[in-house]
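User: Structure tokens for this complex, please. No commentary.
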Amino acid sequence: VAFCVADECCSAEDRTRVQTQWRGLWKDTQSSKIKITFGRNILLKVVEEIPEVKALFKGVNIDNPLSGEFSAHSIRILNAIDMTINLLDDAESLGEALDHLADQHQAREGVKKAHFQSFSAKFLKALPAVIDDFDNMSWKACFTGITDKIASKLQA
Amino acid sequence: LRSTIPRSSPENTERDVTMKTAVVLLLAACVAVASATECDTLTRLKIKAQWSTAYSSGSDREHFAQALWRAVFAQAPEARTLFTRVGGDDTTSPKFIAHAERVLAGLDIAINMLDQPDALKAELDHLHKQHVERHIPDKYYTVFRNALTYVLPAQLGRCYDKEAWKACYNVIADAIRG
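Assistant:
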């Protein structure tokens, strides 16, 4: 079953490419440091573009991006992404996982769909820097589908 | 093997030494630290490496998660009631698979942070807050640890270091329990 959002379809072949390219990032036992750095940089780029987002991350000490709190938060986000990518082959379980993430974000006042669009764009722009043979079309189809579902319960 | 390789040339001697070193290192990785019982720096690195193999990816990860929770519920069938909201009555349901993956993702963060004290503390505080309101009896933390001792060897074979896992699991579980 293809995972589709609007006109973008994450086909079986797209999923395989995304999963394989993503898996290549986590071969090393120090992969958590890559996850933290990568997640932190994306979040800071989103804040740079949409300054109102900064206040939403006050509770996880975004004022000190190198702190333990913000590092742990960065890796939580990256691990949620990791979880969804690894569930791409199981549409029903993926649906449940995304639904849960949508609930968690709906409960956060001030989070908007536009923030997710920014996050998704920054994320897709940063990936080719760390992934060789980055397949833009496959990633765009699968990843945009993931972030759209997570943002689906937001009002604005 | 020895009888078939001429041992006179320096190149072969060098290769021989390299191979011996490799064998010693492999043995050391599997065996030498087996007596470790504290979750010290080296043990933490070992757990991180063993976990990344066990955690795996894709459908292998789903199967690992399923096996883990089957082992939990086999020991404590009544614990299923704690998971009614996330499909605990059927561990093969999409709802429960999603839950099981979330738990492993949390455990993955904690294990990966074992060598980064500030981030580890922040993550364990976060997990503590998520668990404290659920009033989970202490014995279930032991049940979960036992479940890991059942399923990790299946993933890791003889490189699985039971004592190391016990020590580092306790560091994580004690902080989540608070």
